[in-house]
Amino acid sequence: MIEFSSIYKIDDSKNLTDEEIKTCVNILLTDYYWLKYEDFAMFLKNARMGKYGKIYGSFDTPTFFQMLGQYCDERVEVSKEINRVAMEKESRSPISPETQALIDDFKKQLQEKKVKRMNFSDEIPEMREQQKQMNKYIAEFKKKVGHCSGFLEINGKMLGINEYLEFRYNEEKEL
């Protein structure tokens, strides 16, 4: 800040005082915390080249922040342009033949799975019926077990829920 102030040294009575410099630094730390050291270096370089105009009369805090505002506006525009160019470049990036072949193969696999799913949908009513039957067996098991150990004794064997479902399913198949 002191270095910047010295660029526009008119005379001691018309330049930033030590107190004004401290105020500027505090504002920079609180309101412009997102600027990096490189930003200030670039801002100082541009100011030295007279990019923000000549100072007539005196150099004060509002003049400094007006100049910094010009730098920040310019920085935003440059960033937008860099992002725009990067996005265009990314969207135009050519796909290698190998990558295109992988994409095409993947699309083909997806199409085959869709066809299989369509054929599978014919079996859904039968699966729904099986699920209803399983739900019936689960309810039956829970009713018989109640708040006990979670096992049922059938034909001298202790069966958990999975074994019971398998037992009932096989029992029904035999009928």
Summarize the structure.
The protein has 175 residues and is mainly alpha-helical. It has seven helices and two strands; from the N terminus they run ααααααββα.
Note the topology:
Elements: H1 2-7, H2 18-31, H3 37-48, H4 61-91, H5 97-120, H6 124-145, E1 152-154, E2 157-159, H7 161-174
What does this structure look like?
- The chain is mainly alpha-helical.
- 70% of the residues lie in helices and 3% in strands.
- It folds into two domains: 2-91, no CATH class; 122-174, no CATH class.
- Strands 1-2 form a two-stranded antiparallel ribbon.
- The chain is elongated.
- The mean pLDDT is 77.
How would you describe this structure in keywords?
single chain; 175 residues; mainly alpha; 2 domains; 7 helices
